[in-house]
Amino acid sequence: MVKRSAAIALATSSILSPVAGIVTLPESDPWSAAYCQAAALVSNMTLSEMNNVTLGFAVSAGTVATGSACSGISGGVPRLGYPGMCFNDAGNGVRSQDGVSAFSSGVSVGASWNAMLAYERGLYMGAEFQRKGINVALGPVVGPIGRVAEGGRNWEGFGADPYLDGMLAIPTVQGMQESVIACTKHFVAYEQETNRTQSTLNPLGLATSANVNDKTMHELYLWPFEDAVNAGTGSIMCSYNRINGTYSCSNGETLNALLKGELGFNGFVVSDWAGQHDGLPSAQGGLDVVMPSSVYWDNDQLAKAVQNGTLSRERLENMAQRTLAAWFKLEQNSPALPAVGSGLVANRSLPHSLKDVRDPASAPSILQQAIEGHVLVKNLDGALPLKSPRVMSLFGYDATATPINSGYTIPFSDNSSSDLWATNWQPLGLETIDAYLKGTAAPNTVPGLLITGGGSGASNAPYISTPFDALSQRAISDGSLLFWNFEQTDPEVEGASDACLVFLNSYSSEGWDRAGLTDEQSDNLVLSVASKCGNTMVFIHNVHIRLVDAWIDHPNVTAVMYAHLPGQDAGRALASLIYGEVSPSGRMPYTVAKSASDYGDLLHPCRGSINDTNPQCDFTEGVNIDYRSFLARNVTPRYEFGYGLTYSSFEYSDFSIDSQPNSTAQAALFDTVTTVSIRVANTGNFSTAEVSQLYLQIPGVGTRTLRGFAKTDLAPGASKPVTFSLRKKDLSEWDVVSQQWVQPKGTYEVMIGKSVLDVQLRGSFKL
């Protein structure tokens, strides 16, 4: 990585005169060799060829099955052996293709709080992208973080905390880049879908400007991107929104000064699809590759700009070098790789040869990802796991498969029928237009089992294991009885039922923010079943926050589990948890309030009207989003960040802190400067994992914040030591005057617990 002092100097000059020329990095830099290889190639290119490297070429499904189906293809230089690159969604598997796996979504990985599982997911997912001929996988997502509760794309990220996001982005990037280039997105402060870009209904209007101060940018929104950069991410995607008045993909302050300068990012910046709004300003502002095509950079416009002096040759060289450096660094030049896009199918409705790229070795991990993303939040008197039930009754639209395996992508012109159990989508015409302007056009629920959210983050499943399928298999094997009704909101209940299981979902999609955090029909279904069954259990496949206060305190609701978006093995995972083959071990990666109003100003996205051509969104809350907002306002949530139950119990002991104040001052920003040690014991009767969490109160700085977590597998009666390593940055706040991370002097309070509110051990150290 470029040394920080040099990078800052480079970035400062780049705002006026963008990053210069063909660069040579120190030999100690892990990108050094790749930059040398890229420099050799670029030095032999014409201006036109350099221009071509930066340019995306639009691809469409066409009328044949063969041919490219990449989300985008960048230009090549065939005479020098550079074929260009294939870019493709999605964050939970190869999008819109057959022969691929449907992995758990980002929010499920966040709920697992398991860095090793995040690595495995990235590893197996990246390998499938590679076998399909993809060079750049468009993920992981660390923006949006989850500023607003109704954010439509919150499910694509890991959780509503920058530390959690960063610590899960690191292994994800590392795993993916065993095979492909990871494109970490969306940079930066992209926190809503409403007015995310110019509307086709109001083409003169601008995208929302996320107005973020320097301190908040560093301590919240930039934080997980820096972890991804340190992990070596080869690409960063700039977002649709404006940042402090300037479009992200033309923003020299964020792309040149912060990302390439301060963070020392050595890879290339690619635009989100159709996220470029100008020509020279975006080139000078730090954009390196445009997707999926460009009316600003095509027809050799950048080459001509160099010739007429409006763009420096050095900047165009640097754009090409960065792109090729990532190609070399992540070994996309290997002759053993498939041809660019060769495994993708442009039109799956036509006859074609199936290329199945799934690896049987990934199956146990995919199932484990699904299992660990479940969070048990209520378990009255040990209602779960089920104990040899003879009769079970199943209810709810989420228990069976969706009518069509469509990848959950809802066309922008359509919306769901008001009937949850309908099997068709009903176009809403002007109602959809009105809903789009309000940012609420996507339905709150979908008919059938929800395993992923919608939009470009969704993938097609090779199969779906549903709760009904999995529980039916159990009934066959153990001779129990199943009764079911998946259509009615006020169903009859079999009077001999030992347990009544209700399956709901909450949906959202790219393109729209959510219309709310609950829905009346689903709540009424729960209340109806609970009024007739004394052992009612509720399972929710949810994109993110789903409020439950309409029925959570009903005495007959004995167990509640947030299943999140588990991918293809949803039913198998749920059945293994229900029957106690494994214990739940997930924890909430966001805060569930008692009432929607408890989110305050961070419930809804910033909204403009059709006449608002310059929408603004002031991030006046600073870093106080999600649990920090609840702490700062002294609001008690229903289920706090980090909360989750298991089938066992745990005790914490042997708390110790090793801090060396003198060495901290001399340490590098990401060096470990303090270690905290504890011992965790499983005092129950069930083998499971405990998620121990470290929260730090920095002297004079806001609320406590997550600065460590560890997931520990423990058999009954067993105990293990757990160590948390605190980096210098973890003890720091951003000083807007000196423009650097500083460590406030005073007492640092350390809280170890099972959630942000359930603190088991306390201690402190001084700097």
TrEMBL record:
GO annotation (BP), single: cellulose catabolic process
Assigned keywords, A-Z: Carbohydrate metabolism, Cellulose degradation, Glycoprotein, Glycosidase, Hydrolase, Polysaccharide degradation, Secreted, Signal
Pathway annotation from the record: Glycan metabolism; cellulose degradation
GO MF, one example: beta-glucosidase activity
EC numbers on record: 3.2.1.21
Record keyword Ubl conjugation present: no
EC supergroup of this enzyme: hydrolase
Endpoints of the signal sequence: 1-21
GO cellular component labels: extracellular region
This protein's name: beta-glucosidase
